[in-house]
């Protein structure tokens, strides 16, 4: 039986060093390769010219650094780009490159599909297929950078990462943390941890584990201020009541001046009443938060309506009047199905 080759993109720097020691090579070879893996154009070992030729040939037998493929690019009128990523087993995920004032943000996927079943999200309708490997998560950054180079996008850097694409990041905890370590390492991609945000519907054990092991910026997808409504909107979170989620939020380590983000999709007539805004403020009291209000992005397959601007404004003002920061997200990429709740990897379904 043929031995399966190790995908070096799945390995942290420390694991790469151990891998090379296992080959009888000095550990610094791991650091050399780690630096090469940051470059979007490097897809085989022959490009790694500071490695001896014999070692490159050996690596070709023992390991792989194959990248997923960029299958499709969709450009929005607002500059947002949705990228369909074809994984090596034929599955497809999507990531979204979002232009900001002085930088770009990349919204990354962590799973093929999702098991959380959020009623207002298209990804949930796919069901769960599988977790992404650390290398598949990291490769989305490389493909986004390659796309930026090919499209001549050089006006501002890719600086922020948000794990808010397909899947529940904390349900893929081990692979997520490895990807975070690879992406934020100063000898590699060197993304700042304060500019790297993980979003979760509130998987409490994993929230506590992340706080202990590798804290980055955290966003909580709340969407309702009481347990009964929340369980209807996000069925998979029934096992974690709001009280437990908010307790984990209170103990989550924050850098000085930082806040947790609370994400709240506004659904007309369901969770957008001013009394619900006041209830939201009440349960968040004592937690340094900013509330990110997201008016629902309609889709024919989803049974909800987007609230009017007046209703959104009333909800926001009810929060602001209590001294809590509340912003309304301007949906980007709506015309290409790249806005919040719209990712579904159409190529995988066709």
TrEMBL record:
It comes from Thermosulfurimonas marina. It holds the Pfam family RlmN_N. Its cofactor is [4Fe-4S] cluster. Its EC number is 2.1.1.192. Specifically methylates position 2 of adenine 2503 in 23S rRNA and position 2 of adenine 37 in tRNAs. Reaction proceeds by a ping-pong mechanism involving intermediate methylation of a conserved cysteine residue. Keywords: 4Fe-4S, Cytoplasm, Disulfide bond, Iron, Iron-sulfur, Metal-binding, Methyltransferase, rRNA processing, S-adenosyl-L-methionine, Transferase, tRNA processing. S-adenosyl-L-methionine binds at residues 167-168, 199, 221-223, 297. The keyword Metal-binding applies. [4Fe-4S] cluster binds at residues 114, 118, 121. PROSITE patterns: RADICAL_SAM (PS51918). GO terms for molecular function: 4 iron, 4 sulfur cluster binding; metal ion binding; rRNA (adenine(2503)-C2-)-methyltransferase activity; rRNA binding; tRNA (adenine(37)-C2)-methyltransferase activity; tRNA binding. It catalyses: adenosine(2503) in 23S rRNA + 2 reduced [2Fe-2S]-[ferredoxin] + 2 S-adenosyl-L-methionine = 2-methyladenosine(2503) in 23S rRNA + 5'-deoxyadenosine + L-methionine + 2 oxidized [2Fe-2S]-[ferredoxin] + S-adenosyl-L-homocysteine; adenosine(37) in tRNA + 2 reduced [2Fe-2S]-[ferredoxin] + 2 S-adenosyl-L-methionine = 2-methyladenosine(37) in tRNA + 5'-deoxyadenosine + L-methionine + 2 oxidized [2Fe-2S]-[ferredoxin] + S-adenosyl-L-homocysteine. It is found in: Cytoplasm. This is Probable dual-specificity RNA methyltransferase RlmN. Binds 1 [4Fe-4S] cluster. The cluster is coordinated with 3 cysteines and an exchangeable S-adenosyl-L-methionine. The active site is at 94 (proton acceptor), 340 (s-methylcysteine intermediate). InterPro entries: Aldolase_TIM, Methyltransferase_A, RlmN_N, RNA_MTrfase_RlmN, rRNA_lsu_MTrfase_RlmN/Cfr, rSAM, rSAM_sf. Residues 100-335 form the Radical SAM core domain. It comes from the Bacteria.
């Amino acid at each position: 039986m043929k031995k399966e080759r190790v995908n070096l993109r799945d390995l942290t720097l420390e694991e790469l060093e151990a891998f090379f020691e296992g080959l009888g090579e000095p550990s610094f070879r791991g650091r050399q390769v780690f630096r090469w893996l940051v470059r979007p154009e490097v897809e085989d070992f022959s490009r790694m010219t500071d490695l001896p030729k014999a070692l490159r040939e050996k690596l070709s037998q023992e390991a792989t650094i194959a990248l997923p493929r960029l299958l499709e690019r969709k450009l929005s009128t607002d500059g947002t780009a949705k990228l369909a990523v074809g994984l090596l087993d034929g599955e497809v995920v999507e990531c979204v490159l979002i232009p900001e004032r002085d930088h770009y943000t990349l919204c990354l996927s962590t799973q093929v599909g999702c098991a959380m079943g959020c009623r207002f999200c298209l990804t949930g309708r796919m069901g769960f297929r599988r977790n992404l490997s650390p290398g598949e998560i990291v490769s989305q950054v490389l493909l986004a950078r390659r796309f930026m180079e090919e499209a001549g996008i050089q006006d501002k850097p890719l600086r922020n990462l948000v794990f808010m694409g397909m899947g529940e990041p904390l349900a893929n905890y081990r692979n997520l943390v490895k990807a975070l370590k690879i992406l934020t390492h100063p000898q590699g991609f060197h993304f700042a941890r304060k500019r790297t945000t993980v979003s979760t519907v509130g998987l409490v054990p994993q929230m506590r584990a992340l706080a202990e092991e590798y804290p980055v910026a955290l966003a909580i997808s709340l969407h309702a201020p009481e347990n009964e409504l929340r369980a209807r909107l996000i069925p998979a979170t029934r096992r974690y009541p709001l009280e437990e989620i908010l307790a984990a939020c209170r103990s989550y380590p924050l850098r000085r001046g930082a806040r947790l983000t609370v994400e709240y999709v506004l659904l007309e007539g369901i969770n957008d009443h001013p009394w619900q805004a006041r209830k939201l403020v009440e349960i968040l009291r004592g937690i340094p938060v900013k509330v990110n209000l997201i008016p629902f992005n309609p889709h024919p397959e989803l049974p909800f309506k987007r609230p009017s601007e007046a209703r959104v404004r009333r909800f926001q003002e009810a929060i602001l009047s209590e001294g809590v920061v509340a912003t309304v997200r301007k949906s980007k990429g709506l015309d290409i199905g790249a806005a919040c709740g719209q990712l579904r990897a159409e190529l995988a379904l066709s």
